[in-house]
Amino acid sequence: MQPSGNLHIGNYLGALKNWVRIQPDYECIFCIVDLHAVTLYQNPAELRAKIEEIAALYLAAGVDPEQSAIMVQSAVPAHAELAWMLTCVTPVGWLERMTQYKAKAAAQESVGDGLLQYPVLMAADILLYQAAIVPVGEDQAQHLELTRDIAQRFNSLYGETFVVPGTSLPSVGARVMGLDDPTVKMSKSATGAYHAVALLDPPERVRKTIMRATTDSLPAVDYDNLGAGVENLLNIFQAFGGWSSEQMRAHFEGMRYGELKKQVAEMVISCLEPFQRRYREITSEPGYLAGVLRQGAERVAPIANSTVELVKQRMGLYTGA
Ligand code: AMP
Questions:
Q1: Per annotation, catalytic residue among 50, 104, 262, 312
Q2: What is the pLDDT of residue 189?
Q3: Which residue in 132, 146, 278, 287 has the fewest CB atoms around it within 10 Å?
């Protein structure tokens, strides 16, 4: 995740929750992608503070630093090094077609090259560790497709080098929509005051945002005629509560929107409460997070460096040997 803006329930349900679920079954590496964050200007002091905040949020969600590596992208220079090598096998046309690039570029007066190269750096993050699967929200599925294309192109040009990774999307919560506008995905950079529930929002704030959520002109939940706003609220409840679709329908069919919102708000608050408690505990221990991040980088750097060595050999670059 990028250390920019405030992590919200979309980040949690789309990615973080799935990370914790798969953690016992895989050797996992969870990266804080600060090099991606600076594709748009970041205030340096705020960026520095955000990096540890994100690490604390990973831990609060249940990522276990004994089991999984948690590291910062810029602490392992191999990320940037491999990104350059992959840039050289990536056609510009592939990058210009990316929907996230088009949306972000349209919002800028002058488009930085980093914004275009963003998915190549993401491909490097993944291919560097020969990852089998990448657990992301739906908005990143296109970038994963591109990562596979880049890996296959490299493999066909230079011989088998990279594992071609799969995508893991959660069954519910892969795309949480904006609460003020359910036609757009919930996003850290959106400016609307009641657009998102941030993971560190206090209960009163969560209640207020959800009670103001945009619904539609019907009075109550009608499963045969669900508007985007109501569907989004139901999805949020289901993803947090872990209810089955049958349970959801039996409970919510015919419920008035005011009551639906109240129940969604209470579900979200009850799930965020222990999460926020753990966050406060983690951040109250001086030096703890810096240690976790240092250890994470030390653990993954040998894997990353050996991939870069292999790629250099394959491409005929100077290895000194
Ligand atoms: P980012 O906000 O771009 O740093 O994304 C971090 C992770 O959260 C990625 O895996 C995204 O796919 C996921 N994510 C971001 N926004 C949403 C959303 N609205 N719904 C579900 N997943 C999301």
A1: 104
A2: 86
A3: 287
Residue 269: inside a domain, yes or no? yes
In a domain? residue 59: no
Residue type, 221: V
Q: Report, as an integer, the average pLDDT of 153-176.
A: 96
Q: Give the distance, in angstroms, between the CA of residue 168 and the centroid of all CA atoms in the same chain.
A: 12
Token digits of residue 163? 């594992």
Q: Is the dihedral of CA 307, 311, 313, 314 positive or negative?
A: positive
Q: Is the pLDDT of residue 321 over 70?
A: no
Q: How far is the CA of 65 from the centre of ligand 1 (A)?
A: 22
Strand partners, 96: none
In a domain, residue 8? The reply is: no
- Structure-token pair, residue 8: 């919200």
Q: What is the DSSP string of 47-97?
A: HHHHHHHHHHHHHHHT--TTTSEEEEGGGSTHHHHHHHHHHTTS-HHHHHT
Active site (annotated) includes residue 104: yes
Range of the domain at 242: 203-282
Instruction: State yes or no: is 208 an active-site residue.
Output: no
Question: ∠ at Cα 161 (159, 166), nearest 5°?
Answer: 120
Total domains in the chain come to: 1
The atom number, within ligand 1, closest to the CA of 7 reads: 2
* Position 191 in a domain: no
- For residue 240, what is the domain's CATH number? 1.10.240.10
Q: Is the pLDDT of residue 61 over 90?
A: yes
Q: What would the two tokens of residue 173 be?
A: 């919560």
d(C-alpha 56, C-alpha 52), whole Å: 6
Compute the half-sphere exposure of residue 240: CA atoms within 13 Å on the CB side of its CA. 23
Mean pLDDT, residues 218-241 taken together: 97
Token duo for residue 137? 């929200």
